[in-house]
């Protein structure tokens, strides 16, 4: 397993010793976040009743060893580590890459860097990074799906892209969110066509009042909490959503999706992207 810190500006710091920072043993908080299970006393019987389950933000304690060939080099590497993990620079990612190539990212910031005094060797410094993730779920490899118009109907061996015959994109597909929590999709719809997306499993829909995409126009819908944007060629059209629309998530498990782009042509395209969210990396 390879562990890397990806800074907010995209720089990477592998914890494999290649830059003088080694990952230690004794991680805490890696496998699962803390959950608050709240109960109320039961009326007329023993025990209680469940009121709420809330998963708390996650802290991961990461032991590291900073090593160098000289005291001066050690000082420079410690400065680099603390500067690289400065929480004021924005959200970073703690990335775990497994031996089979699968990756998982935990978005957060280093809340604390604790030096533990060293072992008397002026060229080695043990430390502990406290990684704080407001969203406590790891994000897996990105899933990408495409829907186009073409004839005849067929499904590729990899299911991508899905091509449908006719003068419209009207697909009913089962999307399996393999994560442990809701995943927030990023949609791109390229005209021409009249867009509509429905999650039959949850009953949520994204549709618009009097919106037709012209040839080449691109509608981008980002459902990520804290983002929630709807843009047509870079301009917000959030106010064009119908009152019943919801920028919905994909729930864990199978989601039955109706993906419609009425009056589409061979140039029309619908693309879905999302990253499953998991409890453990």
Overview of this protein structure:
The radius of gyration is 24 Å and the shape is globular. An 8-stranded mixed β-sheet has the order 12-13-11-22-15-18-19-20, with no helix packed on it. A 7-stranded antiparallel β-sheet has the order 2-1-7-8-9-6-3, covered by helices on one side. It is mainly beta and 281 residues long. Residues 151-161 have low confidence and may be disordered. Helices cover 5% and strands 47% of the residues. It contains 1 helix and 23 strands. Strand 7 (92-97) and strand 8 (103-115) form a beta hairpin. The chain has 2 domains: 2-136, Elongation Factor Tu (Ef-tu), domain 3 (Beta Barrel); 143-278, Jelly Rolls, CATH 2.60.120. It has one helix spanning 71-84, and strands at residues 2-6, 12-14, 21-23, 35-41, 48-55, 58-67, 92-97, 103-115, 124-133, 138-139, 143-149, 154-155, 162-164, 169-177, 186-190, 194-199, 204-207, 218-222, 229-232, 235-236, 253-262, 269-274, 277-278. The longest helix is centred in the first third of the chain and has 14 residues, at 71-84. The chain starts with a strand and ends with a strand.
Compute the CA-based radius of gyration.
24 Å
Tally of discrete structural domains: 2
Helix/sheet category: mainly beta
Q: Shape from CA axes?
A: globular
Biggest sheet, open or closed, and with what strands and sense? 8 strands, mixed
Which stretches are low in confidence, meaning pLDDT under 50 for 5 or more residues running?
151-161
Order of helices and strands: EEEEEEHEEEEEEEEEEEEEEEEE
CATH architecture designation of the largest domain: Sandwich
Strand order of the largest sheet: 12-13-11-22-15-18-19-20
User: What is the strand content?
Assistant: over 45%
Looking at CATH, which topology of the largest domain would you report?
A: Jelly Rolls
Distance between the termini: 11 Å
Enumerate how many helices there are, as a single number. 1
Number of strands: 23
**How much helix is in the residues?**
under 10%
